[in-house]
Amino acid sequence: MRVVRKSITRVLTVINQTQKENLKKFYKGKKYKPLDLRPKKTRAMRRRLTKHEEKLKTKKQQRKERLYR
Protein backbone atom coordinates (compact mmCIF):
# COMPACT_ATOMS: atom_id res chain seq x y z
CA MET A 1 0.00 0.00 0.00
CA ARG A 2 2.75 2.41 0.89
CA VAL A 3 4.42 2.03 -2.52
CA VAL A 4 1.11 2.69 -4.29
CA ARG A 5 0.46 5.84 -2.27
CA LYS A 6 3.97 7.12 -2.89
CA SER A 7 3.70 6.52 -6.63
CA ILE A 8 0.32 8.29 -6.76
CA THR A 9 1.83 11.22 -4.87
CA ARG A 10 4.76 11.32 -7.27
CA VAL A 11 2.47 11.44 -10.31
CA LEU A 12 0.24 14.13 -8.78
CA THR A 13 3.29 16.22 -7.85
CA VAL A 14 4.55 16.17 -11.43
CA ILE A 15 1.09 17.06 -12.77
CA ASN A 16 0.83 20.01 -10.35
CA GLN A 17 4.32 21.22 -11.23
CA THR A 18 3.63 21.17 -14.96
CA GLN A 19 0.31 22.98 -14.42
CA LYS A 20 2.07 25.69 -12.43
CA GLU A 21 4.80 26.06 -15.09
CA ASN A 22 2.16 26.45 -17.80
CA LEU A 23 0.36 29.10 -15.75
CA LYS A 24 3.66 30.97 -15.24
CA LYS A 25 4.24 30.98 -19.00
CA PHE A 26 0.67 32.15 -19.65
CA TYR A 27 0.80 35.06 -17.19
CA LYS A 28 4.37 36.13 -18.03
CA GLY A 29 4.32 39.79 -19.12
CA LYS A 30 0.70 40.35 -18.08
CA LYS A 31 -0.15 43.19 -15.70
CA TYR A 32 -2.12 41.11 -13.20
CA LYS A 33 -1.19 37.63 -11.97
CA PRO A 34 -2.82 35.20 -9.56
CA LEU A 35 -1.64 35.71 -5.99
CA ASP A 36 0.21 32.39 -5.83
CA LEU A 37 2.30 33.32 -8.90
CA ARG A 38 3.40 36.70 -7.55
CA PRO A 39 6.69 37.02 -5.68
CA LYS A 40 6.22 36.24 -1.98
CA LYS A 41 8.83 38.55 -0.36
CA THR A 42 7.91 40.09 2.99
CA ARG A 43 4.82 42.07 3.83
CA ALA A 44 6.80 45.31 4.10
CA MET A 45 8.57 44.73 0.77
CA ARG A 46 5.28 44.08 -1.01
CA ARG A 47 3.82 47.34 0.29
CA ARG A 48 6.88 49.44 -0.54
CA LEU A 49 6.71 51.78 -3.52
CA THR A 50 8.39 50.63 -6.70
CA LYS A 51 11.62 52.34 -7.77
CA HIS A 52 9.72 54.18 -10.48
CA GLU A 53 7.08 55.43 -8.03
CA GLU A 54 9.77 56.61 -5.61
CA LYS A 55 11.43 58.76 -8.28
CA LEU A 56 8.23 60.52 -9.38
CA LYS A 57 7.80 64.13 -8.25
CA THR A 58 4.72 66.31 -7.91
CA LYS A 59 4.25 69.39 -10.05
CA LYS A 60 4.89 71.53 -6.97
CA GLN A 61 8.23 69.80 -6.28
CA GLN A 62 9.28 70.20 -9.90
CA ARG A 63 8.46 73.91 -9.84
CA LYS A 64 10.39 74.48 -6.59
CA GLU A 65 13.47 72.72 -7.94
CA ARG A 66 13.34 74.73 -11.14
CA LEU A 67 13.03 78.06 -9.30
CA TYR A 68 15.53 77.51 -6.47
CA ARG A 69 18.63 75.81 -7.80
TrEMBL record:
One Gene Ontology term of the molecular function aspect: mRNA binding
A GO cellular component entry from the record: cytosolic large ribosomal subunit
GO BP, sorted A to Z: maturation of LSU-rRNA from tricistronic rRNA transcript (SSU-rRNA, 5.8S rRNA, LSU-rRNA); translation
Cross-referenced Gene3D superfamilies: 1.10.287.310, 6.10.250.3450
Positions with biased composition (Basic residues): 40-50
Top-level lineage group: Eukaryota
Chain positions covered by the region annotation Disordered: 35-69
Family assignment from sequence similarity: Belongs to the universal ribosomal protein uL29 family.
Name listed for the protein in its UniProt record: Large ribosomal subunit protein uL29
Source organism: Microtus ochrogaster
